[in-house]
Amino acid sequence: MRLAVPLDPASLPALLDADFPDHLLALLQGPPTAPTRARADALRPLHDSTITHVGPSAHRPVRSLDAWLVVLIAALFLLERVLATQRTVKVAT
Question: Could you give the angle at the alpha carbon of 33 between the alpha carbons of 28 and 35, nearest 5°?
Answer without folding.
Answer: 150
